[in-house]
Specification:
This protein is an alpha+beta fold. It has twelve helices and 18 strands. The chain has a five-stranded antiparallel sheet with strand order 4-6-9-10-11, with no helix packed on it. Strands 13-15-5-14 form a four-stranded mixed sheet. A three-stranded antiparallel sheet has the order 3-16-12, with no helix packed on it. A hairpin with a 2-residue loop joins β9 and β10. α2 crosses α3 and α4 crosses α6.
Length: about 425
């Protein structure tokens, strides 16, 4: 079945779930003035008793003339259309004539209205399959999309609540995630099993429909252990622990710095980094800004901020190892070859210009775009100068000095109860 359109629910609700005993035709008449509130086959310990009884008291559902409700009877797509068409809302599209729904079929009007209100759609080939038993996942998708809900959390995190999430068809995953966030899903005997492809029973459909009323503030919440519950927006911390190494890459193959250079630089994360929950928290391609700082002892990158691809910015306490490798620049060296594919600290650029006499070093080669004119005089008259040589591919991988903590609100994670 195609993905259902998302439409806001109206305020008028009248549902009829009953069927006439001994016939296939649903009981589509309005609920009686004195609705039946107890059924011979729904005892006080029945898992869906509260859902069924409350809807019955409202006149939304009805049983059979023999006093039963038949909670375990399976529901067809035609029967579900008859139920869902009573959840009134604006019609958003013209009815279509399905090839397998003749005009004299008992539910033809209900199917037309359910389609017009965008609760339900057909299958390829212009068929509706009215007598097909409706899978639970189709019920969830129909109700969720009718209410217009979208997932606010990472839908994969939400679906991990279900032990059988792998059975959910791709078209339904986001709708099921949104419905789970909104507590529309009811599963007996274990809410951890969605049973998406299992045919829905009358009791299950009643529970689902009741939860749509709760979600739209038309009914009180029932405290049932069978409602799937996800804590949305709960501040559950996930982290990348201290001591983890973050591999990086840089556009240039080499960086030259003189002692006492302090140059701003932005590095790129070279591989995904996962947190303690196994979820990727720092995707490959994220940026790390900081400074390359050189002293008499060597050069070290000190990270300041992590910019994640999704736009989040996080303070980062991480450093590279100390690099002590040096490269000697002498008078007469070919400056073009020397600085090819190389980034320069301001003091390093000034040193090269002062020793070689070549003042044509491009500003874009200098980290941070710093001017070097005032520094050149320091190196005039020298025959050589020793500069620190950094190989970004091997020297600048970063070590976390403290835990990098992400709040659930920043990662799009919801937690299961």
């Amino acid at each position: 079945m195609s993905v259902f359109h998302r439409i806001k629910i109206g305020t008028s609700v009248l549902l009829t779930l009953g069927t006439v005993a001994g016939t296939a035709a649903p009981m589509l008449a309005p609920a009686p003035a004195f609705a039946q509130t107890a059924f011979s086959d729904v005892n006080n310990n029945y898992w869906a008793k509260d859902f069924i009884q409350d809807l019955s008291e409202r006149g939304i559902i009805k049983g059979f003339p023999d006093g039963s409700f038949r909670p375990d009877a399976l529901v067809t797509r035609a029967e579900f259309a008859a139920m869902i068409r009573s959840v009134k809302k604006a019609k958003t599209r013209d009815a279509v004539r399905f090839a397998d729904v003749p005009s004299n079929f008992w539910a033809s009007g209900a199917i037309a209205e359910a389609y017009e209100m965008a609760w339900m759609s057909g299958y390829p080939g212009n068929v509706f399959r009215p007598m097909q038993q409706i899978p639970r996942v189709q019920v969830v998708v129909a109700l969720n999309n009718g209410l217009g809900y979208e997932p606010t959390c990472n839908f994969q995190d939400v679906l991990s609540y279900y032990n059988d999430a792998g059975q959910i068809q791709s078209y339904a995953v986001k709708s099921v995630a949104a419905a789970t966030e909104k507590q529309l899903v009811v599963s007996y005997p274990n809410p951890k099993f969605l049973k998406p492809n299992q045919s829905a029973t009358r009791a299950e459909v009643a529970a689902f429909i009741y939860q749509t009323l709760v979600s739209s503030n038309q009914a009180r919440a029932i405290n049932s252990p069978y409602i799937a519950k996800i804590d949305v927006g709960q501040s559950v911390a996930v982290k990348i622990p201290s001591g983890v190494t973050i591999p990086i890459e840089y556009a240039k193959g080499k960086i030259l710095l003189a002692p006492n250079d302090k140059s701003p630089i932005t590095l790129t994360v070279a591989a995904d980094i996962a947190g303690n929950n196994g979820k990727v928290l720092i995707p490959e391609g994220s940026k790390i800004s900081g400074e390359l700082r050189s002293t008499a002892a060597g050069v070290q990158f000190v990270a300041q901020e992590l910019s994640i691809i999704n736009g989040s910015r996080v303070p980062l306490n991480a450093t590279s190892s100390v690099i002590t490798r040096k490269e000697t620049v002498t008078k007469g060296v070919n400056v073009g070859n020397l600085i090819k594919n190389t980034a320069l600290g301001a003091a390093a650029a000034a040193a090269i210009a002062g020793v070689t006499g070549d003042r044509a070093i491009a500003t874009e080669e200098v980290l941070g775009g710093a001017g070097i004119g005032t520094l050149v005089g320091v190196f005039l008259g020298r025959d050589k100068v020793d500069l620190y040589a950094v190989n970004p591919d091997t020297d600048l991988d970063l070590l976390l000095n403290s835990d990098l903590v992400f709040a659930a609100a920043n990662t799009g994670i919801c937690s299961a109860r």
